[in-house]
Amino acid sequence: MSELEIRRLELSDAEAFMDYIANWATDTSPFKIDAVKSYAELSLENFSDYVEKTHREETFAENPDWSTATKYFAFINGQIAGEISCRWQIEKGILLEWGGHIGYGVAPDFRGHHFAEEMVKFALPKYQKRKISQVMISADKENLASRKSIEANAGILENIVDIDGDEICRYWINLEEQ
Fold it and tell me: Which strand ranges, in their side-by-side order, compose the sheet holding 156-163?
């Protein structure tokens, strides 16, 4: 298998992104990423607007309760396997309570290859460069694969919180120890 390439989305990724959206549409898992809902409106015609929006969100949050964020996509053999969002202001909205600094998802066809673990490993130095020494990541209690990805990156379970009937595990990664 080829090496995973993790990078920001480019205009030339339009076809791969449309395939990625189609892959998510087949997902029967209860652990879908929130972004998938917004992908339903995307097409080749408005893909450039989406790319521009993701780049703009790196420095400007459209809502005062949202953090600025950098979104990276994981490519394998030219296909998008997953995405990871690095959120920079954990004090915004629900992030400190349960959302966390990092959100990620692996498309159904690419699960079981430790790509989430690799994406988290990729993201952690981005926080170190910004002098963020403690990174919070959460996962549904029942999502064992996600929890293992976090734990493989030195995530320490702080607690489990109830959010509207869902049990969410809150992990912290201490980057000063890495």
Answer: 5-7, 69-76, 79-87, 102-106, 134-140, 166-174, 156-163
- Asked if residue 97 lies in contact with residue 164, where contact means CB atoms within 8 angstroms, the answer is no
pLDDT-based confidence at residue 168 (cuts at 50, 70, 90): very high
Among left, alpha and beta (phi > 0; psi -120 to 50; other), residue 137 is beta
pLDDT digits (tens, 9 = 90+) for 87-130: 999 999 999 999 999 999 999 999 999 999 999 999 999 999 99
pLDDT at 32 over 80: no
Domains of the chain, earliest start first? 5-177 (3.40.630.30)
**Alpha carbon distance 154, 172 (integer Å):** 8
CB distance 6 to 73 below 8 Å: yes
